[in-house]
Amino acid sequence: MKDALNGIRVLDITYYLPGPYAGMRLADMGAEIIKVEPPQGDPARYMSGGVVHEANNRGKTIVHLDLKSPEGLAEMLELVKTADALIETFRPGVMKKLGLDYDSLKTIKPDLVYCSLSGYGQNGDMAALGSHDLNYMALSGALDVLKDDSGRPVHPTNTFADFTGGLLAAEQITAALLKKFRTGEGRYLDIPLVEVMAEFLTNHDLYHERGISDHGIPEIAGSRISYAIYGTEDGRYMALGALEDKFWRNFCAFIGKPEWLEWGAKETGSPKHQEVASFFKSKSWREWYGLSLQVDACLTPVLKAHERHEHPYFLQKKRLEQQVAGRTPRD
């Protein structure tokens, strides 16, 4: 889909991560993204030597405008006249003070698709509060479903709300563009990141409402031997997702443990679970890594982020993409 949005121009007036990521997703689909930064640049340029900025602004044209100056505002309004869509991530009310809110811009560009991506939306008591990814995870309930064995929420080392919010923004903008070209109508999109994360908890809501579980789907909540994370001899981890009987049977047959065939649905923490866990710890992570490529049992190594680039799946995918593009990698 690298050319699906060819001919579409999007103005990206966003900083840090969720907005830039949304714009980059649209750029990856062929849209022309003009990222408007202040004269001193996006603040992300100064985080860890600019790594966050570099990682989320691929394929964009970056211009620097002082939107508080008459000259900068005039240049921005000229860009709006040529744009199909605009993304902004300022706190509610800022764009209105600048004269760049949706109501103002639709007078000069009636079919503009305008997306506001924020923590708590444009209205309500919390709309003007400062917030970050950890807050959206916590308030939505998403952080509570990521707990260690003691019940303490695990501190994420990735910004899940930012990335999922960026994905949803790209999806909603694309849908609004489709409607724009069908009807000629513009659209205002208000996307609060806290609500984005809450949308992933519909299973949990219904299980709680029905009195079945306060932890979502019980079968995948870490309570079954066949669907759990296991430590290895050298302190690394493997993920076993053999939820269906056929995968558990495949696993038991492959490792030569037919006596475990009836254990798949047994509870973690039981003596049987301890026996399985001890067996995992009898081999190194590298040994289990190799075995995971030999058996169809939903068995995968828990990789560090940089290690995925060397996994056969990602290596093969990269090779195929290069071949399609006419660039066969050298041996």
Structural notes for this entry:
With 331 residues, the protein is an alpha/beta fold. It has two domains: 9-199, Rossmann fold (3-Layer(aba) Sandwich), CATH 3.40.50; 220-321, formyl-coa transferase, domain 3. Helices cover 38% and strands 14% of the residues. The protein contains 13 helices and nine strands. It has helices spanning 18-28, 51-55, 70-81, 94-98, 102-105, 133-140, 160-183, 193-198, 202-209, 245-255, 271-280, 285-292, 312-324; strands at residues 9-13, 32-37, 60-64, 85-88, 113-118, 187-192, 227-231, 237-241, 299-301. The strands form two sheets. The protein has a six-stranded parallel beta sheet, sandwiched between helices. α2 (51-55) links the parallel β2 (32-37) and β3. α1 packs across α7 (160-183). It is elongated, with a radius of gyration of 24 Å. It starts with 8 loop residues before the first strand and ends in a 7-residue tail after the last helix.
As residue ranges, the low-confidence spans are none
Q: H/E series, N to C?
A: EHEHEHEHHEHHEHHEEHHHEH
The strand order across the widest sheet is: 3-2-1-4-5-6
Tally of alpha and pi helices: 13
> Alpha-carbon distance between the termini?
29 Å
* CATH homolog superfamily of the largest domain: Crotonobetainyl-coa:carnitine coa-transferase, domain 1
Q: Tell me the radius of gyration.
A: 24 Å
The chain-level mean pLDDT equals 95
Helical content (DSSP H or I, runs of 4+): 25-40%
The main pleated sheet reads as: 6 strands, parallel
Domains, number: 2
Q: What is the name of the CATH architecture of the largest domain? A: 3-Layer(aba) Sandwich
